[in-house]
Description:
- The complex is a heterodimer.
- By secondary structure, chain A is of the alpha+beta class.
- Chain A has one domain: Sufe protein. Chain: A (Alpha-Beta Complex), CATH 3.90.1010.
- Chain A is about 35% helix and about 20% strand.
- In chain A, helix 1 packs across helix 2 (about 60-75), helix 2 crosses helix 5 and helix 4 packs across helix 5 (about 105-125).
- Chain B has helices at about 15-25, 35-55, 70-85, 100-110, 130-135, 160-170, 240-255, 255-275, 305-315, 335, 340-345, 360-380, 380-395, and strands spanning about 5, 65, 90-95, 115-120, 140-145, 170-175, 195-200, 210-215, 280-285, 295-300, 315, 350.
- In chain B, helix 6 links the parallel strand 5 (about 140-145) and strand 6.
Amino acid sequence: MAMTYSEKVMEHFRNPRNVGKLEDANGVGEVGNAVCGDIMKMYLKVKDGIIEDVKFNTFGCGSAIATSSMATELIKGQPVGDALKLTNKAVVEALGGLPPVKIHCSVLAEEAVKAALKDYYERQGLPVPEECLVEEHDEHEGCGCSL
Amino acid sequence: MFVYADNAATTSVSEGAVKAMTRGLKEVYGNPSSLHAKGREAEAVLKEARAEVAALVNAEPSEIYFTSGGSESDNWAIKGAAKLGAAKGKRHLITTRFEHHAVLHTMRALEKEGFEVTYLDVHENGIVKPEEVEAAIREDTALVTIMFANNEIGSIQPIREIGKICREKGVLFHTDAVQATGHLPIDVKADNIDMMSASGHKFHGPKGVGFLYVKRGIRLPNLIEGGAQESSRRAGTENLPGILGMAEALKEAVEGMEEHSKKVTAMRDKLIAAIEKIPKVRLNGDREKRLPGNVNFCFDGIEGESLLLSLDLEGICASSGSACTSGSLEPSHVLLAIGVPKEVAHGSLRLSLDYVNSEEEVDYIIEKLPPIVERLRDMSPVWEEIIKEESRLSA
């Protein structure tokens, strides 16, 4: 069966926001694995408690790229405290929905943001907030593939 | 520009086939089972179509059963042969690891019923070794089923040799020839085929119609009980418009095969040569023993769906793996079967050309594909690692 992406998903796929790397990032997180077909790497530059800049690199399907893009857009310019509250649901809603088999991409996007935030807190020598402690998955658990 | 390069998924219906179908809808609308003039007319036309299809693969008309397509033909042949075997205490089946799901899932269903299945290796080039078929055949083997040509990577199997081995061993041999029919020369007698599945829409016929060739003497169990259609083995009023369309399309395909094949092979090789200029790509499937229109590549560092969507945005219809598995998150079982690593198998692209494609269309793909690959690689952390590794090695 063919899957249909929303216009918003296609728009973010066509013109993803915040693609690239940040040389001066002070928080970097990478989630997913190539065997499952998705890897997201998130770079944060936090200054005075605000996410001043954010960039991403993603290997994955159309929705992996779109959810990465949307996640960066949702947290850019926001206080870290707000970014900590980012949920995959918020990403899905902002994209106007995702096909059911692609929901895991939004989970991955949330986890990528949180992995980068965790790295930020650790680099600052600050206690890592509970929200960043996303459950450690087994290699494939939650990625949606059954390899 | 718009380029349809997914002809292995389905083809456009030829003008001739549309005409034949229209005749079946408007003019020859009788029920072939009716006794009156309209019924007799339909029966005569049906008979002609059956004879035509039979002749095009060198079968007898009584050996051709019209079905709804490839999947039905595969299911019927395999389940039927399994049942015939089981009646004689034979509960072993042989196939390959890279069959279409219509075959593989049928095998899985039969395994649940207690059949034992041997899945043969297809090696790096995607070709079964006849000696391995021979070695796998046992006293209790009921059926060998091996596809004529693979739908994803286009590799052509040594069907005649395998058929010969099966004949000698007295084992039934079925081939899923859905991708080959109308594209490669087929002679069921010379090719030693006992049963063969084909589907109309893969050679410019309509969808929802196909056929199963069953060699005379094989008492395949009935598929659908009811009326006397298809020698009482598959009941139900015949899909005459579909059958007429398919018969016409097959005639055109077989008559034009030499010319089409020459044109399509040249376009295919041009496309392959151009894609091979992109770094870190690999051609999947055998270079020589390959369907004329099949191009299948893996691109390191990128995922197939994003490649597909990007091509779609440029007006190019392609496929990542087969159309039947799109929407699935699994890498292609075909690519895994030929030993492509999982992380690379996610980045596959199939472009399937046909004689209706033009040289200009191929040039358009050649122009559009490299920048898309570059753009996706630029944003891929996997590609970044590949590049880092490269420079580490060269340093």
